[in-house]
Amino acid sequence: MTKQVQQLDRVIIRFAGDSGDGMQLTGDRFTQETASFGNDLSTLPNFPAEIRAPAGTLPGVSSFQLHFADHDILTPGDAPNVLVAMNPAALKANIGDLPRGGDLIVNTDEFTKRNLAKVGYATNPVEDGSLAEYRVHALPLTSMTVGALTDFDISKKDAERAKNMFALGLLSWLYHRPTEGTLAFLERKFARKPDIMKANIAAFQAGWNYGETTEAFSVQYEIKPAVQPAGLYRNITGNVALSYGLVAAGVRSGLPVFLGSYPITPASDILHELSKHKRFGVRTFQAEDEIAAIGAALGASFGGSLGVTTTSGPGIALKSETIGLAVSTELPLLVIDVQRAGPSTGLPTKTEQADLLQVMYGRNGEAPVPIIAPQSPSDCFDAALEAARIAVKYRTPVVLLSDGYLANGSEPWRIPDVDSLPTIDPDFAAPGQEGFQPFKRDPETLARPWAVPGTAGLEHRIGGLEKADGSGNISYDPTNHDTMTRLRQAKIDGIANDIAPLTVDDPSGQARVLVLGWGCTYGSIAAAVRRVRSAGGHIAQAHLRHLNPFPANLGQVLRSYDKVVVPEINLGQLALLLRGKYLVDVIGYNRMRGLPFKAEELAGVIQDVIDSE
Amino acid sequence: MSELHNGNGHGALSLVPKTDVRQTAKDFKTDQEVRWCPGCGDYAILAAVQSFLPELGLRRENICFVSGIGCSSRFPYYMNTYGFHSIHGRAPAIATGLAASRPDLSVWVVTGDGDALSIGGNHLIHALRRNINLKILLFNNRIYGLTKGQYSPTSEVGKITKSTPMGSLDAPFNPISLAIGAEGTFVARTIDSDRKHLQSVLRAAAQHNGTALVEIYQNCNIFNDGAFDPLKDPEVRDDVTIRLEHGQPIVFGADGGKALRRSGFGAFEVVNVADVDPSEIVVHDAHHPDPSLAFALSRLDSPAFEHTPIGIFRQVERPSYDEQMRAQLDEAVTGQGPGDLAALLASGDTWRIDG
Ligand SMILES: Cc1ncc(C[n+]2csc(CCOP(=O)(O)OP(=O)(O)O)c2C)c(N)n1
Ligand code: SF4
Ligand SMILES: [Mg+2]
Fold this sequence. Notes:
The complex is a heterodimer. Chain A is of the alpha/beta class. In chain B, 27% of the residues lie in helices and 17% in strands. The radius of gyration of chain B is 23 Å and the shape is globular. Bound molecules: thiamine diphosphate, iron/sulfur cluster and magnesium ion (MG). Chain B: This is 2-oxoglutarate ferredoxin oxidoreductase subunit beta.
């Protein structure tokens, strides 16, 4: 049967099912197929904090949204065009996001009386007409899968579990995805269970063949590869990019990386990833708690390693005292905070940007720390390298603020040429200096020497007590403390001269309103800005990578516009800093829903401010 | 004894560079004014450590003292080695990162009873179970010195202090029992006033591969003066001190008239040598794989110091965390070759876009 082929420029698919249905895996495979096909893409996994919430319930719903296009895109998309709902709970939890006329694929096998009742459906929505405004494809995915696997020597349960591969096969057919990657993946994943491997491959192919032969789908879609700069690409999540950035920082500095960490969502994957890279001399240490984790990292830094600690907001709270010690002893240290929604345990698997003030000010005494925030999953690689550069050059702890959305989201990444990456010079103090002074600063950077144990003639003691300027001996002298407090601050402030000035994107040059963001909101803001511009609006956009110190030209940029809009997934933390430092009355836009902003929503906010001019 | 634990070249100090320069105690003194109260037991410990270290023949720059917070934790400032005076309770954690990444260092931790057992209790027990190469000197004065005299987790029940005017309520830790329970491989006790004994314990600890915990009874003459007097008073000390020596029958008392015998439930009891058959007298076996013996010895302590063992309770071999960590790194390099950054970045599914 030949099918009609329709060209699309972009599609947003959401796979939704029970936590046990393998939706993350399905989404991930579709993403890999899409990436290797050459579309631009962006993903948004969304899963419960519980490992196995009761099957078939709303809290147990796990989803994976993927936006892919023939042009460059910035976000995982506001709303899906296609929703795959593997059970009634997945339908109920997600149908509100599917716009009218959207495609809905439901697995009717799971729409049993019992499952419907579990989520409070009195009647079956697939049959009662309540889904009339969607293009519904009601398919018995489970029984079709089981039917396709009758010849395999596997249990019924294993056969049913392969239904996600059937769905993946069908969707892969529908959107013309290349399949070699998935086949190779299944071969690798189930190498030790050949029966399961063959069954999954068969289910995947059955799904594909079903698409080709059924009358249920008359149209097949094609989304041309995006035009992207030449190079070698891969798809990458924020946590993997960040891990690679840390490995690269070790290689480019010649310093052994030492990671001290305590597991916490959504940061644990960095610990998992780095523990695979021992051949790079990377040491990973799973500590007894967050305090020990950062302590060990700082101890390793004292010994001449690139000390790193990874955590999320609750862990930062525990690490504060040791960050202060690192400020006081002026040792390089990377503190990575993959933020999640708070306060307290909050929403462990959902994103937020609400740790900015915690990392900026959450310590006793004057304890300034540079803060860097990546703006997309792949940018986590560069941000990690930049954080390491500053930490080593200025002998200071540096906080890298990622978040759950960047950590788990993914996008294509043009793999950089290793030789093009910055080099980092540890510049260790040379042995045998007469009258060595551990706190005598470089006049330009104000950084102190890094004299590591084992260096003859430089034996010295450091600690958290105030140190005399220069000698580093304990000092209770009042003016010395004032001097040292100002010197530590001046050192961090001076980094502003060593980072790129803030660039503003304002193609028309006529904008009177600036939208300024930081961190993970980059994609949503940029997509919103495109919408505003394509509707004829003039809007300038800038995005902060360095939150402490701010780029030297930030004040001047802020004052060049009549109005400044600052969208943040918190209650206005950057806004508070901007107002305090520059006395500019910025307009905040703040929502804390555990999810990234929608482009449409932000476009409306920006347009309203423009219109109010 | 140390050879036994060092014979295979994996000993604690096998990778620490040696010096050919003759060292003396003076080489380990700094120009910093020592600021403990006159008469504090910490002076004696400092002097003992400074005069012991030359024996090891290590390069001074390869020795590092890490401490927490407390009077005792000021120790590193007075040692002419590398030193890190850190934050309250966290020294074992900080030293863990240092020791795990630098096999060429001899890393010592100096801590107090509050530092190690209150705020830092978690780090202490985990260092012990990991068996990382740290030599932990726990200055136990049974009081919070630096904060001016509150009771500590080793203070006896009913202790009257500023924070417990009607007497403290909580049962104390026995640091030796705790360390043995935490899978410690080297657990010892000594006393500030007995330099010879203190140095003999340090000697064994320094050579031990893994975590060594040395509890040092230390007098705080300001806030808890005389806490260990029965063990120091020449009139009674020999009667109440049990000096543990591996392989020797446990006999004590001024005239050697007392001994230990096994009693019910795996415990020990004190008996008169004259009343028992010599075969019943317990022979100390610090190397026994089962920690029960050492634990039972640690339970002989009593608030009144009727019979207090000092010396090495337990000294067994177990691979250290740091050497095993190094072995995994080496194995990864041997098995897969050294890391190649370009290959790592381009791992997984990739595709090429031509310009
Ligand atoms: C986080 C923190 N809490 C409390 C203190 C106050 N503090 C300093 S030392 C100490 C107790 C010291 O007792 P110990 O460890 O027995 O040492 P000592 O002074 O007796 O040698 C306390 C409570 C601190 N410095 N930091
Ligand atoms: S307070 Fe006690 S422990 Fe502290 S220095 Fe004085 S005597 Fe020593
Ligand atoms: Mg004390």
